[in-house]
Amino acid sequence: MKYINQPIVKKDAYALLSGKPVYCDDLALKDCLIIKLLRSPHAHAKIRSIDTTSALRIPGIVAIYTYKDVPSSRFTLAGQSYPEPSPYDRKILDEIVRYVGDEVAIVVGTDESCCEKAMKLIKVDYEVYDAVIDFRQAIDHSVVVHKEDDYKMLCEIGNERQRNICCSGASVIGDVERVLADCDVVLERVYHTKANAQAMMETFRSYAYIDAYERLNVVSSTQIPFHVRRILSNALEIPKSKIRVVKPRIGGGFGAKQTGCCEIFAAFVTWKLKKPSKIVYTREETFTASNSRHEMQMRVKIGADKEGIIKAIDLYTLSNTGAYGEHAPTTVGLSGHKSLPLYNHVEASRFTYDVVYTNTMQAGAYRGYGATQGLFAIESIVNELADELQIDPCELRLKNMVREGEVMGQYYNEKLQSCTLDRCLLKAMEMIDWKNKPLKRDMGDKVRGLGVALAMQGSGIANIDIGTVDIKLQDDGFYTLSIGATDMGTGCDTVLAQIAAECLECDIDQIVTLGVDTDASPYDTGSYASATTYVTGMAVVKACEELKQKMIVEASVFMEVDPSHISFDGNMIYAIEDHKEMSLKDFADACFGGHKGIAMIASASHVSPTSPPPFMVGITEVDVDKATGEITLHDYVSVVDCGTIINSNLARIQAEGGIAQGIGMALYEDITYSTSGKMRNNSFMQYKIPTRMDVGKIRVDFESSYESSGPFGAKSIGEVVINTPAPAIASACAHATGFQVRTLPITAEKLLLKKDED
User: Per residue in 485-526, pLDDT tens?
Assistant: First the structure.
C-alpha cells in the first residue's frame, strides 16, 4: 500500500495555516446587504403586533420582514435524507415564538450598525404565555408547545404533540422482567447528561446572490449542501431547480451545521429583493439560537449473576428536543442502539424512549449523536455493577463484551463482521499498566482513581446514506475527483484522494479534489453519521475501477490489440505480448486530441446495507484534591478499532480532538436556563470548554480490524472517539472519592459535597 495508512498532509493545510481567504465570509460579495435578526425575549408568547415604522426611517435600512411577509409553509431545518423523519414544525417567521432567541423579524440594511439601531426601534407587543422549561416535566404539561393545525410529519415517529411528545418508540428482546427477577444482583440508576454547545471556530454564516440566469445562489458554511437546497425549496416555496448551494471551507461543524440554521434568512432576503445579502451569527447567537446536544435523562436497570455475567439491561431515555424537532427521532435512537449492543450476550434487553418539546433552544446533531449520552449511562452502570460485585471492571467487560461474528439484536440485527474490541481493551490496559495499579490510590493531598469505558458508533446510516463521485482523466494525465461529501476540517478531501490514488496507482498530487457545488457535484447525503470514509470511500473505489476499465478498453483501440492484453501500472499502459506501450500522459492527451476525442470519466454511487461499528476503549487516571475536590486528569489512554486506517495523522487527530470534547462534556460544559427560559451560558465567559492545559496527557493507539465492506477495510472514526471520556472519568472519580456522580458535568463541588445535582 502506497497511500493507505499513511500520514499524508491535508490538501488544504497550507492554505489554512497561511490565512488565505477560504471561508464563507471571506468569499462574500463586498456590497452584500447585511441581515440581523430581532429575537424573542420570551420563552413562549404570541405576537399581537409589530410596529416597524420608526426602524424603517433609520438611514441604510432597506427592509424589515415579519411573520406576515414570509411564506406560510412549515418545514424542518434538519439535514436528513428525504422523507425526513423530523417533523415539519417551523416557519421562517411565526406568530408564536417558542424559546428565548426565536426569530421575530428580519432586518436588512447596508451595514451592521444601521441594522443594530433599527432593531432597537422595532416595537413588539407580546401576549406572554406560560412556558415549560424543565424537560422532565414536559409530558402532559399544561403548556403545549406545538398547537398549530398545519403541523406535519412525513414519517411515523410515535408523535403525540398534544402531550409535548415529539416522538417515542421501543425495541424489546426477550422477557426483561422475568430475567431480572432471576438475577443475583439488580441495579437501577438514573443518569443525566446536559445540553452542550458546539463551540466550533466558525459561527453560522451564509450569503446569497442572484446569478445571470435568475437563480438563487447560496454560499454557506454547512455540512449538508444538498439538504440545504431542499430546505430552501420547502421554505421559500420555489423549485429546487432555481437554487444552487455552494460549500467553501468550514471552520468546524461537529454536527451543528447539519441543521440549516441561517441559510433561510439570506436566501429569503435575496430572493425577495434580488440583491446579494449575507448573515453572520454572533457568538452569542450561536450559543443561544442555533442548536445544542440533546439533554437526556436515562433510567437504567441491569441484572447479573454473582460471577458478573450480565443477564438483562433495561434502558429508558427521555430526551429534550427543545422548541423544534430537528433530529429528535434519530438522535435518541442511538442512545440505545449504539450502547446496548456492547453487551450482546444478555438474555433480554429493552430500549424505550420519549423525546419531548420544551420552550428552550432546539437541539440538533452533535458529535456522537445520542450514542454519547446513552454510553455514559450504560458504561457508568456497568462500572457500578463491577464495584457492587467487587469484580475488576475490565475483567467484567471481557466476560460480557460483544465479539466478532455475533448478530447484534439491538443493532438492527446486523452481524458484526469486524471487531477487535477485546484487543483494544487489552492494549489499553497494557498502556496504562492496569494490572499493577489499584482502582484507588492515596497520593497524600490527592487521591488517584482509575476508570474505564467502552464505546461503539456506526459507519453511515445503513440503506440510507449515499455517496456519489465522478472521476475524470484530464489532459496531461492527472485526475479530477468530484465529490458531494463535505469536508468540515476532518480532511475528507485528502482521505478520498488517498483512496483514489491507491486505486489508480498514481501519485496523490495527480488527484485534484473538487469541492461541493450542488449544480456540479454528484449527490451526497452530506458529512454526518460518520459516513464519508466508509460510504463515499467505497464510491471512490467503484468509480476508479470503472475508469480503469474504460481506459483499458480505449487504450486497446489506440494500440489495436485485444483489451485482455492491456495492463496499467498507474504511469504506463502496456500491451506486453504485442510489444506496445503508452504513457498515461500520452494516452490522456490522445483522448483530448484529434484521435478519438473520448472523455475518460466514470461515476459511481454507494449505499451500504450495513453500518459496521467502530469501537473504542478509554482508560483514565484522575487526581482529586482532598481539600477542594478539584479534578485533574493525570493520564488518558485510548485504543480505537476503526478498521483499516486511511490517513494515520488524521485518524490520530480525530481521536485526540474527540477525547478533548468528551473531557469537556465530562468536567466543564453545562448549558443552563433561568426559570424564565433564558440561557445563562451565552458566551465563552460563562461556558467553559477545556483548554490544552485541562485535557492533560492524551495517548492514542489503534488495533485495526478489517471491514470487508469498506474501502481497503476501513470503517469510521469521527464520532466514536467522543464517547468514552464521560463514563471513564465518572468511574475514576467514584473510585477516588467513593461518590458516583450521575449528572454531568462532574465538578469539584459535587465531589466535595457528595451532591449529584447542582
Answer: 988 888 999 999 999 999 999 999 999 999 899 999 999 998
Written as one string, the DSSP assignment of 207-272 is EEEE-TTS-EEEEE--S-HHHHHHHHHHHHT--GGGEEEE--B-S--TTGGGB-SSHHHHHHHHHH
User: What is the percentage of the chain residues whose pLDDT exceeds 70?
Assistant: 99
- Beta strand pairing call for 185-193 and 295-304: antiparallel
User: Does the structure show a pLDDT above 80 at 594?
Assistant: no
How many separate helices (H) and strands (E) can be counted in the chain?
A: 19, 29
Say how far apart CA 608 and CA 605 lie, in whole Å.
10
**488 beta partners:** none
- Look-up of cell digits 468514552: 724
Identify the band that residue 597 occupies on the pLDDT scale cut at 50, 70 and 90.
low
Q: What is the DSSP letter of 75?
A: B
Per residue in 708-717, pLDDT (tens digit) is 999 999 999 9
Helical packing angle, 492-504 and 537-559, nearest 10°? 30
Residue 195 has pLDDT above 80, yes or no: yes
pTM: 0.97
Domains of the chain: 13-129+204-280 (3.90.1170.50), 295-459+611-753 (3.30.365.10), 467-606 (3.30.365.10)
Cell 441543521: give the residue: 259
The amino acid at 562: D
Residue 156: how many other CB atoms lie within 10 Å? 10
